[in-house]
Design goal:
mainly alpha; 10 helices; globular
Length: 231
């Protein structure tokens, strides 16, 4: 056990090219996913929180329920869509990073939208009368609330990043876990553990855990700073 741990530290210490390539791809896919999910999920969650429309309660229940989407089911659906016989098969995206980004975005958007809905709904209850008295349009109301709650919404963005970085099932199905092309930290950990390469698995696990801790520490410090500055 100690030898495995020391070898894992050695891989990290000498900046092993294999490890760096896997970590870089994981970040590239994760950041792309979170960017797309933020652009879709935050406005969607705010819209459900503020707008009045038939079926709003159902939309809320659906959003909350989709937070627990099984990743392998999403992976299979995206696989069928991107396969040669699927509607997007002509683009040749299967077993590529864009396919992984698409699958992860489908998983992350409901999570970020549901968290955003709760945050914005709480703010809307407090400021609804002010917005109505100023005759804000729906679009201006959503933009204003998103800006006002921007520090709280960091939690939703980080939750999406954590879901993206820790995803295994969907990216394994649509990405194929191809070495040097679609192998992320989580898929590499699963494969290398099965192969018995525990030092590499442990090294990647240490990187993944460190990233999660740093992101959460950053979010905590940001919210503390915002509370001190804006009360």
């Amino acid at each position: 056990m100690l030898d495995t741990f020391l070898e894992a530290l050695s891989l990290l210490g000498r900046l092993d090219e294999h490890v760096l390539a896997i970590v870089w791809l994981s970040f590239k896919v994760g950041l792309s996913t979170v960017t797309l999910a933020t652009l879709i999920g935050l406005p969607l969650g705010a819209l459900v929180a503020v707008a009045s429309f038939p079926g709003r309660s159902i939309a809320t229940v659906v959003l909350n329920g989709m937070m627990g989407l099984p990743s392998v089911v999403v992976g299979v659906i995206i696989y069928l869509i991107l396969s040669r016989s699927g509607p997007l098969g002509g683009f040749g995206l299967l077993y590529s990073p864009p396919a992984m980004i698409l699958a992860q975005t489908v998983l992350v958007v409901p999570l970020m939208a549901a968290l955003t809905r709760q945050i914005i709904e709480d703010a809307w209850r407090e400021y609804a009368n002010e917005f109505r008295s100023m005759r804000f349009s729906l679009r201006h109301t959503i933009v204003s609330l998103l800006y006002d709650c921007r520090f709280s919404l960091v939690v939703a963005v980080l939750a999406g990043m954590g879901r993206s970085l820790s995803e295994v099932g969907a990216v394994m199905i649509v990405g194929g876990n191809i070495e040097g092309f679609t192998r992320t930290m989580t898929t590499a950990i699963a494969l290398e553990t099965a192969k018995g390469d525990l030092p590499l698995s442990l090294a990647l696990g240490m990187v993944l855990l460190s990233v999660v801790l740093v992101l959460n520490a950053g979010a905590y410090n940001l919210r503390q700073w915002a509370m001190r500055k804006y009360g």
